[in-house]
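Q: Structure tokens for this one, please.
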Amino acid sequence: MFRRTTQGIALSPSSWATTRLGKKVTHSLAQQPSSPLLSGLSLAVPFESDEIDVLRQRLTDCLGQHKKQPVGLSLPDSAGHILWVPRPPEAESAQETEEMVRWSLRDRVATPHHQLRVSVFDTGQEQLLVAALHNTKAEQMEETLDRLGHRLLHLSFHSLDLWTSLQACRQTATDYLLLCQLPESAQWYRVKQGKLIAFRHKVGAFSSERLASETGRTLADWRQLRVEAVPETVWVYLDSEEEPLYQQALTGLLECPQFLATNLPTVPSLNRIALSAATAARRLA
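A: Here is the predicted structure, written as tokens:
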């Protein structure tokens, strides 16, 4: 039975990717033309009122002529918060877990905890992975897409969508390290036997030297915690015009890293994020 078509969008300050998931999968990738920077794509704050029109135009360009489709939307990690938090031992339901996790963030993020929209990812471990977005920003996305005739079903972040896409791939889901370098942040995901056993998120701009240094520090910290830091498979996602410099720096530190842009042919890496968002929206449609 054919399931309805969904659209995945991966937005970044400099470009966007769209993936339409129907009977066939179609991809498009575009560079962002000169326009005001949407601070909500780089900072964990709502969009300013004068940015909403820019956001609407960008989403219109992404969606084209397609109407009334369920949409999955992926934002840069710096647009919100991704955290590694202890599992609440007293929680008896998913709703209680979410409420207790939201409360636990009150001293960890600048946004008041009652203004956060929280998604909890069960890792199968004592730590949970949590994505938190300012509720006003989430509502701005929903309202903008609703006015365009679409329904937002999935809202997440780039590195999370990359991680979930790798988890869904049987060839990569067993044992790997995923390193993501994004415009305003970097993330390290360590998966063993299909379970996320370690995670680190660092905000800021990363030169190739800094990314290599922070990667070395992350691996050293994990070894002290008796985490097997470097598996045979290392996936690296780079969002930089100076990708060769990053590749050179990381190749000297990691054994045989596989760069997503070159090792997943036919699907550019930003489109892989959009495909994951479209797949998530289809599950919810």
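A few notes: Confidence is low (pLDDT under 50) at residues 262-267. The helical segments are 52-63, 94-104, 135-147, 158-168, 208-224, 243-251, 260-263, 269-284.
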